[in-house]
Structures are given as C-alpha cells and as structure tokens.
Design brief:
It is a single chain. By secondary structure, this protein is an alpha+beta fold. It has three domains: about 60 residues, Structural Genomics Hypothetical 15.5 Kd Protein In mrcA-pckA Intergenic Region, Chain A (Roll), CATH 3.10.290; about 80 residues, Pseudouridine synthase, CATH 3.30.2350; about 150 residues, 2-Layer Sandwich (Pseudouridine synthase), CATH 3.30.2350.10. Helix content is about 20%, strand content about 30%. The strands form two sheets. Strands 5, 6, 7, 8, 9, 10, 11, 12, 13 and 14 form a ten-stranded mixed beta sheet that branches. Strands 1-4-2-3 form a four-stranded antiparallel beta sheet. Helix 1 packs across helix 2 and helix 6 packs antiparallel against helix 7.
C-alpha cells in the first residue's frame, strides 16, 4: 500500500454516519468531488479504512479512520481546438452552448478530434479533469445530429449539483421536432421501460423486459399535411429517447436514419434528404443555478437546415389544401 501523498485527507467517521456505504460517506464529507470519481478512487486503491484497502460497498463504523489519497490528475490526450462556439450564457461556474448539428459532444472511437469538448478546452481555462478526462465538464449530451442547448460545468461543485438536478428531473428540457405521420391526439405522455434493443445493441427500444423508466410529454404545434411539428418535454433523459418514443407512437422523426422510415411522398422524401439528419432541436433549457439558486432559462431557434425543412413542409401542406 503506497504511503499517502501530500494531498491526502484523514477522516474519522462520526456516529451520525455509521452504517453508510463507504462511497456514500465520502460523497457526503467530500461534496466537491463527484461520487463517481470517489468510487473510482476507491476501486483504484486510493482509499483505506483502518489501513486496509477500501471497497465502495463497505459499511463504515463510528471511529473508522479513512485516508483518501486522491490520485494525480492524468494528463488528458484530448487536444484543445479553436472551433467556433455559440455561447448563450457564461459565468465562472458554467457555460451554455447552442450546439450546431453535426458536432459530436465528446471524443469517442471514430471521433478523436473536432468535438465540442475539443472546442471547450480551447475556450474554457482549467476545464481538464472536471468530471473525467474524456468528458470534462459534460453534464448531459445530445446526439451528434441533434442541434440545440447544452450546459457544461466549469468546476466539480457545479458538475455535482447539475448532475443531481438531472437525476432528480429538476431540469427543464424542451425539444422541437418534425415527424412523419398523423398524431393520434393533440398531445400525450409516453411512459415506458427503456433499454438496449434486444435485436440490435446499437439501438434503443421500449420493447424490453427490464430497463430504466423513460417519460416523454409531447404536444402538436402544427399539422403539416402528412408531417407534423411537435414540441417535446422530457421528464427523463435517456439516449435517443425522443427519437425512440416518437417512432413508437407512429411518428418517426423526419430524416432519422436509425428509427425513421423513408417517406412515400417524393416531395417529402426530398425534404428529408436535403435535411440529412433527424429533425430534432433542443430549443429550451432551464435549471436552478447551482451557485445562486436562481432559475435560469434559455431558448434557441432551430438552425437554418431545420428552418428550411419546416418551410418546405409548410409549402407542401399549403399545396395539399
């Protein structure tokens, strides 16, 4: 067991924390560090209990002496790149970005550079290491070909607070979508189990026996002939949730290559091809600022490609009247 470094913290468990899991206890007494990071530190041997290596699920007892020796920050290989960003709001704690379609949020296999994270590392000082080496500051994501609003944390306290707000569903997120089909009603609520598609692990599905809960509220804004403009409010934030839920409702998003279908109408097919992506835009984002508690709300108009598709659908609808 290596000797504790100069940044090590010695903690003595009080009676009010007796019986808690080690990872939970550390998250309470070290609120500036995320629980996921602390769990990783425990599994990497950076936490001892009474001189013995800790285990995340271990129950602590009153009087236990815990030593937390945070590992040195591993230099990230992510390169800062001068990529233009549309900054909607920025302060010392967080930044809100209006992401264009086509921009990947963080590096991943096949996308090592040219991502939002690469751009953020150039724009925001000292972002490295906040919330992880590969996804610094990233609290939530939207798909590469979905446009719209994202909030990014600049410090661990903000990261933890926003993460907790997302988990508690205290974040307001509204999307605008163009879908193909005729809605069964003018509005509705979809509440399902959600998980990996059992037949295709690259996709997600509501047709699962076990999974997480996913809840989507939607309402029709404008009927456009055989297409429809919809506003969607999320209660949960699962990967591809809007796309999957709308497809399950019989309203696949226009241009969605994974969950959609090729329109039968030649003109509608042409509009989808010109768009070249799913017609989905994160139009509204609201949350209580972690530092001030003040409710903040941001709005974003859909980008030019989305606006052109909407104009094309309106043109088709007017001809069909």
């Amino acid at each position: 067991m290596p000797a504790p470094g100069p940044s090590a913290r010695r903690l003595v468990v009080g009676s009010d924390h007796a019986g808690r899991r080690l990872d939970v206890y550390l998250a309470i007494v070290l609120p500036e560090i995320s629980r996921s990071q602390l769990t990783r530190h425990i599994t990497e041997g950076a936490v001892t209990v009474g001189g013995a290596r800790g285990v995340p699920s271990r129950k602590v007892r009153a009087g236990d002496v815990i030593v937390w020796s945070p590992p040195d920050v591993v230099p990230t290989e992510i390169v800062a790149e001068s990529i233009p960003l549309v900054v909607v709001h920025e302060d010392s704690h967080l930044i809100v970005i209006d992401k264009p379609p086509g921009l990947v949020v963080h590096p991943a296999p096949g996308h090592p550079r040219g991502t939002l994270v690469n751009a953020l590392l150039s724009h925001v000082a000292d972002l490295r290491g906040i919330g992880g080496e590969l996804r610094p500051g990233i609290v939530h994501r939207i798909d590469k070909d979905t446009s719209g609003l994202l909030v990014i944390a600049k410090d661990d306290q903000t990261m933890n607070a926003l993460g907790a707000a997302f988990k508690a569903h205290d974040i307001s997120r509204q999307y605008e979508a163009l879908a193909v089909g005729h809605p069964p009603t003018s509005s509705g609520r979809i509440d399902t189990l959600y998980g990996r598609d059992p037949r295709d692990r690259k996709k997600f599905s509501i047709k699962v026996k076990t999974g997480k809960r996913a809840v989507t509220n939607w309402n029709v804004v404008e009927q456009l002939g055989s297409a429809v403009r919809i506003h969607v409010e999320l209660e949960t934030g699962r990967t591809h949730q809007v796309r999957v839920h709308m497809a399950a409702l019989g309203l696949p998003l226009l241009g969605d290559p994974t969950y959609g279908r090729t329109p039968r109408e030649p003109a509608l097919k042409e509009i989808a091809a010109a768009l070249g992506r799913q017609a989905l835009h994160a139009r509204k984002l609201g949350f209580a600022h972690p530092a001030t508690g003040k409710w903040m709300e941001f709005n974003s108009d859909p980008p030019a490609d989305f606006a052109r598709a909407l104009a094309g659908l309106r043109g088709l609808a007017s001809v069909g009247r």
